[in-house]
Amino acid sequence: MKPPQPLRLDERPAIPTPRDIVERLSRFVVGQERAKRALASAAYNHLKRTALRRTRRQVPIRKSNVLLIGPTGCGKTHLARNLAQILDVPFHVADATEFTEAGYYGKDVELIITELLAKAGHAVEEAQRGIVFIDEVDKIARRTQGHRSGVGSRDIGGEGVQQALLKLLEGREVTVPLDAAPHWSRQEAIPVDTTDVLFVCAGTFTDVFAYAAEGRGLGFGARDGRRRAARAIRQKDLLEYGMLAEFLGRLPVVVQLDELSQEELLAVLTGPPDAIVREVKELLSADGVELAFTDGALREIVRFATDRGLGARGLRGVVEEVVADLLFEAPERRGTRATVDAAWVRRRVDRIDPATLH
Fold first, then answer.
1. Strand-strand pairing, 189-193 and 173-177
2. Is the pTM above the cut of 0.85?
3. CA nearest neighbour of 50 among 42, 37, 38, 59
4. Is residue 287 within 8 Å of 330, Cβ to Cβ?
5. Which of 183, 229, 307, 352 has a Cα-to-Cα distance from 333 of 20 to 30 A?
6. pLDDT digits (tens, 9 = 90+) for 281-309
């Protein structure tokens, strides 16, 4: 039997290289270089695999689904969303905690593909090459000890959901409803093949290990830039946490993300094209108000977010609270200039409830 011949150049679709993907991700995502490289390689291999399958070849390459592990606000969802934009494929974010085992009240896992199909404009071919981001997978860990004692209560929101997800992660033709309503008829369902759908799962797994402080104490007095994991998470740790071996086996690429330092959070505020500071400046500029932030103001915003463990996700809420009065008064302040300094920020962040920013 002759070995398979490589694709000719005129057959090969335009696929961005891993380096191209990393460079484009870096425009929008600050730090997390290891995660960018791992995601870029997984995406590149996924696109090659999909291209080969479209030539009707038998492809022995398995899907490189990804598991991202890291603290809240470190950029897990942001990475996946920007990856989907770079690859120009349909993208859907699902929360694992919404799903239950089939037959119980709650969402069936098949609705993940229904919602991806909706993002693809109900074009099955497009949906079958999309990306699904499943957040909070650590919340579907096995909650019973039946695997140790031989007995245990039914775990419909943990182990049951992991088992239900196996067929999607592996790649099967599944029958999914066209409508995401809780009560759907089988007559309104269509088959979708998940073989070429890339799954990116993410979780904090905060109980697996503790974050160790480097050069600073934890809490409101903490000032240094970063907390790192005391050690890397091993497969054994995830199994003991309650993740099924079969589930982890379908997520071959495991990436541990770092907590962002204060300098990186500062870059998140002002650097990317979609940075929140750029956004509020543009909003006020549309009303004829010129807005400026001093370096001290930006650092005060970052200090508040760091001290309360909000991460990058919390920065938006802090900035919006800081400029809330300006946004309200903007139509009446046309033609003026406003400067936000550290004192301005301190007066306004004191009234923020950190629980509302997570």
1. antiparallel
2. no
3. 59
4. yes
5. 352
6. 999 999 999 999 999 999 999 998 888 87
